[in-house]
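Deviation from plan, reported transparently: S-adenosylmethionine complex.
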Amino acid sequence: MLYAFPQLYEWSLKKLHGPDLKKRFDIISSAIGQNQVLDIACGTGMLAEYLDPKAEYQGIDLNKRFLKYSAQKGLNVSRMDVFDFQQYPEADTYVVCDLLHHIMPNHQKLLKNILAFGKNVIVCEPAVPNKSKLRRFVVRGILDNDFINPPRLDLDWYTETELVQFYKETLDPTEIIKVGEDIIAIKQVAKSAKPEDVHNKSLSDISPVSTNA
Ligand SMILES: C[S@@+](CC[C@H](N)C(=O)[O-])C[C@H]1O[C@@H](n2cnc3c(N)ncnc32)[C@H](O)[C@@H]1O
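Because the crystal trials were delayed, the predicted structure below was used instead.
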């Protein structure tokens, strides 16, 4: 349902996250700075609203309605499967926001292939509060069904501790930051055009889960 109506999707996200949505996208945007970004599974392209005006935005997704809506906003988006790695446009930073839990159990494969590009990678995912079967059915089976990935009701997403561990093992991130229910991992490998921007503005509002660097 949410994935059939782009405006409803955006409205629901704003209601669900409240002020944390802006904090989430501000952190991601700060790490991108004024560079090129590929938004992998861009949805309705919400990230683009928070970017530095000098950043160069490209998005890929498979949802035709979301892509049409994003294109109407003037965003540079293309219809592409996120597993079609050979077709990825070049960018300084690859962002994977709210996607991994949709594509499990192939989420590790996706990240490994993206890391192989050797660019900055930012991953943002929610952590589940518990592994209740009812929650899994309602969220995975109904609310968060994207109609691209058949819902895997036999699999559950990570709790906060598990997600942090997954980030550490898979990404070796420079920084891990918790914002509301979301946990963001930032792996900076390339020199940013404005490195001082990475730790800016509202970061003091946010409690770091842990830092590796
Ligand atoms: C929860 S939305 C996240 C959208 C956006 N990144 C955001 O943070 O608002 C998940 C998106 O993943 C897209 N998606 C899922 N599987 C995909 C695939 N194999 N290739 C491209 N897009 C995919 C869906 O169409 C949907 O727009």
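Confidence is low (pLDDT under 50) at residues 193-213. We consider this an acceptable substitute for the interim report.
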